[in-house]
Specification:
Helix content of chain A: 40-55%
Strand content of chain B: 15-25%
Strand order of the largest sheet of chain A: 5-6-7-8-9-10
Oligomer: heterodimer
Radius of gyration of chain B: 21 Å
Order of helices and strands of chain A: HEEEEEHEHEHEHHEHEHHHEHHHEEHH
Shape of chain B: elongated
Strand content of chain A: 5-15%
Structural class of chain A: alpha/beta
Order of helices and strands of chain B: EHEEHHHHEEHEEEHHH
Helix content of chain B: 40-55%
Largest sheet of chain A: 6 strands, parallel
């Protein structure tokens, strides 16, 4: 098989991984560098950012996971890269500025350790023989030995172990060869090592931390299950990112739900909720009740505000930063702007436009110098309906929200 | 209305700003037009004075100096007047002027500077090099703003050991890097001969790019907002 066909086969097999971040690492070397905020180089037709050469080392797989395009029982074209092919493709693409670096994952060939050894060999070649100083995202194979995880972390900027299915029951049903332990063990090892290395600061050791991915909609787990797991990973394993990947039905399999389209809106709401956890100082039980799903009609912050109308309206000129962040329609950038600008002068309604803040949503939750510009009578149903109407008119910032989460994938913020 | 006409150079721009601020001119322009209603003053560029004024702004605040430069690089119509409105505020309030975002002058300057910085950040990703015979890496761009000075250090850090050229075809200027030496120069008459390897690598990349799209999730509108059509001409995978 020539390199053209190989690349097509092994890129096609890798594309369902949602992560494409190239942020969190600063590296300088004779050939290449990593930019702390990450850089997107392109966007594919599905609107996803392209910043890394995302490929599998091989799609030959010993496993037979129900949802996966590369599972053993699928009759598809199989290929395997040599270490030099991977290194040279990365270098040739990198020096043309097509990419920020390499994202190397793999199906399980022979066994997890054997696979990891091949992957490490390729990345080592790239780093040592080609002196590559760009970004490397290394996908850890569940069940591989800690020694190999350690070696991968020495070479990579970011590592990730994909959880994919959020509980033991789904794993057993859809992914019989994997178990919870084989996934969590390398993850825990990596998080301990990252912490340890932070204290010593001896060498570059996965400086951009670790991330993971959860598939949404391949099983019957609820959003609350997913978000509680994500919250646990952020707080106890210090993950940089949890990615949510709307389930795409690529295999015919009776164990899988019959869905025509991936649950994109649900995935989008999960990303929004994830942001509230990481940047807006929300606690997970404020966003979602036990055993339930997010409201698809509203973004999770608006949904929270509608349930807590007694906390509103707040005074734009007085509310502290944390309170402003909880106002629907006011994001991180706007909240900071407001704090800055009102230090200088009292803000009036017409100033919002100059500041570049859209008041469409926020107006129901704010007063400006004591004056309320929203509804005369505070009535939850009316506010709900008005907010829904805006949405239907397309006046809402769903596009910006989408942009935000996509640029979040690359860590622009 | 009193108006200053200057020669369009960076030094001239600084001279004009100084004069306008200190002698209360209302407008600055680099175009000589028939003016019916304005009293025009043709300004002679003075490099030494410009340097002194640059230092004066720098002392005022580092941010004010940075913004004054960025506004010049923006090359949008009437950027001089945006700079003037902003600097009036900076002179009045010092570094605190940055917070006066409810002021139209400060806000306008802030937004325009962000636009310039955003474009230069985008181009850190959008620039596409081609390999020429002899191994020189060559890229062509046509940005809205004059962002070459903002791109120089990034690409120098990344590819300092390579020979590379980033050519702004709108302005006939280029970043030219040889190991150990990097500068921005005027160039014209660009003739290109690609290396043997080049065509194949491009095909590999284009096919990779096509392959990674998930068809079930197609969103061309979103893609368009990220990669505007005006930039696509010079981006390999959209050619």
């Amino acid at each position: 098989m020539d390199i053209f066909e190989k690349l097509e086969t092994l890129a096609n097999s890798a594309k369902y991984d949602a992560s494409c971040a190239s942020s969190g690492s600063e590296r300088k070397s004779p050939f290449g560098s990593a930019h702390i905020s990450g850089i997107c180089h392109s966007w594919s037709g599905d609107g996803r950012c392209v910043s890394l050469l995302k490929i599998l080392l091989t799609n030959h797989c010993e496993y037979d996971c129900a949802y996966c395009i590369n599972r053993k029982s699928n009759d598809i074209k199989r290929a395997i890269f040599t270490d030099d092919e991977i290194a040279r493709l990365t270098v040739e693409f990198y020096k043309r500025n097509y990419i920020e670096g390499l994202f190397l994952s793999s199906a399980v060939i022979k066994n997890p350790d054997f696979t990891m050894e091949l992957m490490i060999k390729a990345v080592r070649k790239l780093r040592l023989e080609y002196h590559f100083g760009g970004y490397v995202h290394f996908k850890i194979i569940p069940g591989s030995d800690s020694r190999l995880v350690n070696e991968a972390m020495r070479l990579a900027d970011r590592i990730s172990v994909n959880i994919e299915l959020p509980d033991h029951k789904s794993l057993e049903k859809l992914c019989p060869e994997k178990d919870k332990y084989s996934i969590l063990k390398p993850m825990k090892y990596a998080s301990d090592k990252i912490l340890e290395n932070k204290k010593n600061r001896r060498e570059k050791f996965a400086p951009a931390g670790q991330s993971t991915q959860l598939i949404v909609g391949a099983d019957d787990n609820t959003d609350s299950k997913i978000l509680n797991l994500a919250d646990h990973l952020y707080r106890n394993m210090f993950l940089k990112r949890v990615y949510y990947s709307g389930f795409v039905r690529v295999n015919e399999d009776s164990r899988l739900p019959m869905v025509k389209e991936p649950p994109l809106l649900r995935e989008h709401r999960l990303y929004q909720a994830d942001w509230l956890l990481r940047f807006y100082q929300f606690k997970v039980d404020e966003i979602i009740g036990a055993d339930s799903n997010l409201d698809l009609r509203f973004d999770p912050k608006t949904a929270w505000a509608l349930k807590n109308l007694d906390r509103f309206p707040v005074e734009l000129n007085k509310a502290d930063y944390e309170t402003l962040l909880r106002v629907p329609g006011i994001g991180l950038v706007s909240a900071k702007k407001i704090i800055k600008a009102r230090r200088f002068s009292n803000l009036r309604f017409e100033d919002l436009k100059t500041l570049g803040i859209s008041a469409k949503k926020a107006v129901y939750f704010l007063t400006l110098n004591g004056k309320y510009y929203g509804l005369k009578t505070e009535n939850k149903d009316k506010i709900e309906n008005l907010l829904l109407e805006y949405k239907q008119d397309g006046l809402f910032d769903d596009k910006t929200a989408e942009k935000t989460y996509l640029s979040a994938n690359t860590g622009n913020l | 209305m009193k108006k200053i006409i200057y020669d369009g150079s960076y030094f001239g721009y600084l001279n004009a700003l100084e004069k306008a601020l200190k002698e209360n001119f209302g407008e600055i322009s680099s175009k000589e037009e028939e003016e019916l209603f304005a009293e025009c003053f043709n300004l002679e560029t003075d490099a030494k004075k410009a340097g002194a004024f640059a230092n004066e702004i720098r002392k005022l605040s580092a941010e004010a100096f940075k913004k004054t430069q960025l506004l010049y690089l923006s090359e949008t119509p009437c950027f001089e007047n945006t700079a003037l409105g902003y600097l009036k505020n900076a002179y009045k309030y010092g570094p605190a002027a940055e917070n006066n975002l409810a002021d139209k002058g400060v806000s306008r300057a802030d937004k325009l500077c962000k636009k310039v910085l955003y474009e230069s950040h985008r181009f850190k990703g959008f620039i596409r090099f081609s390999e020429l015979e002899g191994g020189i890496m060559f890229a062509k761009i046509a940005p809205e703003h004059n962002i070459l000075p903002l791109l120089k250090s990034h690409f120098r850090t990344r590819f300092g050991r390579l020979n590379f050229v980033i050519y702004d075809e709108k302005r006939n200027r280029a970043i030219i890097n040889r190991p150990g030496h990097c500068e921005i120069m005027e160039i014209s008459d660009v003739k290109l001969r690609f290396s043997e390897n080049e065509k194949r690598t491009r095909e590999l990349w284009k096919n990779f790019f096509k392959t990674i799209e998930i068809k079930e999730r197609k969103k061309p509108k979103l893609q368009k907002s990220f990669v505007p059509l005006k930039y696509r001409r010079n981006i390999t995978e959209f050619e």
